[in-house]
Amino acid sequence: MVGALFDKIFKYGNPNNTKLSQGNRIGVVDIGSNTVRLVVFDAPARVPVTIFNERVECGLGRGLGQTGLLNPVGTDLAMRTLGRFTRLARQMRVENFMLVATAAIREAHDGGIFVEDVKKKVWLFYKGSFWG
Q1: Residue 24 in 3-state DSSP?
Q2: Phi-psi region of 25 (alpha: psi -120 to 50; beta: other; left: phi over 0)
Q3: The domain that contains 34 carries what CATH number?
Q4: Is 132 among the domain residues?
Q5: Residue 16 near residue 130 (C-beta atoms within 8 A)
Q6: pLDDT 10s digit of each residue in the chain, 132 long?
Q7: Among 1, 32, 52, 96, which is most exposed with the fewest C-beta within 10 angstroms?
């Protein structure tokens, strides 16, 4: 299950938090203990339709119980994956882009650093694609 939200919901593409309307394309990235997944939906009036679903095994939480830290190899792979997923979202013209993270990020001593790095990286790739 998806846990902590990045700043309640780390969101790009809908800066005014306007209500989703028919035809919006939504991208959700779930940063989990083992995988990072991107799912993109077309959101017609009632039922969203999945148009893209990909996951990469990153192993962010590997060794967390022993070290209290995110796995450095997993962190590197997750950052590269997030860059790729962000570029894909731009190419698919995602209008609302959200990132969520599970317990590994909350529990890791370096989880806050990871969140800040993610914010910077995703913003660099995503900014300017749909507004200013």
Answers
A1: strand
A2: beta
A3: 3.30.420.40
A4: no
A5: no
A6: 233 333 333 444 444 444 544 458 889 999 999 999 999 999 876 788 899 999 999 999 999 999 999 999 999 999 999 989 988 998 999 888 888 888 888 889 999 999 888 888 776 555 443 322
A7: 1
* Domain span including residue 48: 5-126
Domain count, the chain: 1
Beta-bridge partners for 98 = 11, 28
Cα 78–10–16 angle (5° rounding)? 145
Listed in sequence order, the residues at least 6 apart from 91 whose beta carbon sits closer than 8 Å to its beta carbon are none
Judge residue 124's burial from the number of C-beta atoms within 10 Å of its C-beta, 0-12 exposed, 13-18 middle, 19 or more buried: exposed
Reading the block at residue 123, the tokens are 């913003």
Tokens of 115: 């969140």
Q: In this structure, is residue 18 part of a structural domain?
A: yes
Quote the CA–CA distance of 94 and 11 in Å, as a whole number. Answer: 11
Helix ranges (DSSP H) in the chain? 64-67, 72-91, 103-107, 111-126
Q: Is residue 131 part of a domain?
A: no
